[in-house]
């Protein structure tokens, strides 16, 4: 039987997404299942530490791993691996553990998707450990690798379908490999229903995190794995195309220039003679809608490379954006989608984090945010950029329209619009069935940005 992706067209989305189905699109509705379980997520963290020979506790000067460099294999020595080799599941036990539930819920009873993403990032690292197999590594020698999150391609959530008192099952597998990088497809389920899906890119580094390390090539073992692999190749192609035209440096298209002109005339008048912009009814200025916070990460937030764990950075950024979305909408908001989380610099364990969430685009009941994470070096207090997240939230009602006040903000607006369009497209691509885009979100509206 030829396995292929099932894509169902979605004509429209109602504001609450109430009829969204409980499944994400997989290859002909089938899923990869190895039967392997890594225990709880606490067990996963312990396995990773044991695998790399990490010392217990925190040491300002970590134990040197230079001695492991001689064990780094050559790529030609690494045998091919299948997706089933890396596939595993791990559990978050919420049903009978009240203290664990407390860590994972908001005050309104919804599960914290920032926490879920943090755990998925950790599981993705463990999946990389399971994929890497250097046959010449002597028994008892720690794995001479370090794994670093490069980016999150995207993540999709069905937040309201989660229950705070039902165990959560996380699973995933390697879905694509390069020379020294791996794509991980990760899933979140409750009661067997697939409620969230995320795509991570992880870089394999040597034992001292000073250079790239080769990874085992991925070879699909059957038709199902081949179907997942073809989907991963499509994503890799899209990522390569995006790298060639960075969104931050992308020149507006003719259509986007028209959108900018229409916004200008709405606030400055047709002739543009007004010295001060006038805010149209039910609108807000972008310059007034950003919220920021400073965090001091601690050693408990580090990874085995002694830098701040990528999952902690993602969780902190999601929670900052959540607060901003709630304040903007005047009600509780829920996260729907994350796209293009790119880590440009690792954050040393002695640093501080500055997070700033900007409302950059709105449409109907949706709020699109850009959250920027900078780090402040704890030694010389210089500031540098770490990563940027693009997040889509929904509210229970229509939100005020956000409008830029400068050319720079207009470019952010257009970028936010592109990411929102990616969210709408992903519903068609990632989900089976679904509600339809809000009646007000028509093709003409997307063109106009209204």
UniProtKB/TrEMBL annotation:
Keywords: Hydrolase, Repeat, Transit peptide. Belongs to the acyl coenzyme A hydrolase family. The keyword DNA-binding does not apply. CDD domains: BFIT_BACH (cd03442). Residues 431-450 are annotated as: Disordered. GO terms for molecular function: fatty acyl-CoA hydrolase activity. Coiled coil: none annotated. This is Acyl-coenzyme A thioesterase 9, mitochondrial. GO terms for cellular component: mitochondrion. It comes from Drosophila rhopaloa. Residues 439-450 have a biased composition (Basic and acidic residues). Residues 287-399 form the HotDog ACOT-type domain. The keyword Lipid metabolism does not apply. One of its GO terms (biological process) is acyl-CoA metabolic process.
């Amino acid at each position: 039987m030829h396995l292929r992706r099932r894509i169902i067209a979605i004509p429209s989305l109602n504001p609450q997404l109430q009829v969204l189905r409980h499944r994400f699109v997989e290859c002909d509705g089938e899923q990869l299942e190895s039967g392997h379980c890594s225990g709880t997520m606490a067990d996963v963290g312990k396995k990773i530490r044991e695998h790399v020979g990490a010392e217990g506790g925190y040491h300002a000067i970590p134990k040197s791993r230079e001695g492991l460099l001689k064990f780094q294999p050559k790529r030609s020595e690494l045998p091919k691996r299948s997706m089933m080799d890396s596939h595993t599941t791990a559990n978050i036990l919420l049903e009978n553990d009240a203290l664990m539930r407390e860590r994972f819920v908001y005050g309104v009873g919804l599960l914290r998707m920032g926490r879920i993403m943090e755990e998925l990032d950790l599981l993705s690292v463990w999946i990389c450990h399971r994929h890497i197999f250097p046959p010449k590594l002597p028994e008892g020698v720690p794995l001479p690798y370090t794994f670093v999150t490069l980016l999150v391609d995207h993540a999709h959530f069905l937040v309201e379908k989660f229950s705070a008192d039902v165990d959560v099952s996380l699973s995933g597998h390697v879905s694509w490999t390069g020379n020294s990088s791996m794509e991980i497809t990760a899933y979140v389920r409750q009661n067997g229903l697939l409620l969230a899906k995320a795509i991570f890119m992880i870089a394999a580094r040597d034992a001292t995190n000073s250079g790239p390390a080769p990874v085992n090539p991925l070879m699909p073992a059957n038709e199902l794995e081949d179907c997942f692999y073809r989907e991963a190749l499509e994503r890799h192609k899209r990522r390569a195309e995006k790298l060639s035209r960075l969104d931050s440096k992308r020149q507006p298209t003719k259509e986007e220039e028209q959108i900018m002109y229409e916004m200008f005339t709405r606030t400055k008048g047709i002739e543009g003679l007004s010295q001060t912009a006038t805010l149209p009814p039910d609108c807000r200025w972008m310059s007034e809608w950003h919220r920021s916070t400073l965090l001091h990460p601690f050693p408990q937030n580090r990874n085995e490379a002694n830098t701040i764990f990528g999952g902690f950075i993602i969780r902190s950024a999601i929670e900052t954006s959540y607060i901003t979305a709630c304040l903007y909408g005047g009600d509780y908001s829920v996260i729907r989608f994350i796209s293009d989380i790119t880590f440009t610099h690792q954050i040393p364990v002695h640093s501080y984090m500055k997070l700033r969430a900007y409302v950059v685009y709105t449409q109907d009941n949706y709020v699109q945010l850009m959250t920027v994470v900078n780090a402040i070096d704890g030694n010389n207090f210089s500031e540098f950029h770490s990563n940027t997240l693009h997040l889509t939230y929904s509210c229970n009602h229509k939100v005020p329209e956000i409008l830029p006040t400068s050319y720079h903000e207009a470019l952010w607006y257009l970028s936010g619009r592109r990411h929102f369009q990616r969210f709408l497209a992903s519903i068609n691509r990632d989900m089976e069935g679904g509600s339809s885009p809000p009646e007000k979100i028509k093709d003409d509206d997307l063109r106009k940005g209204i």
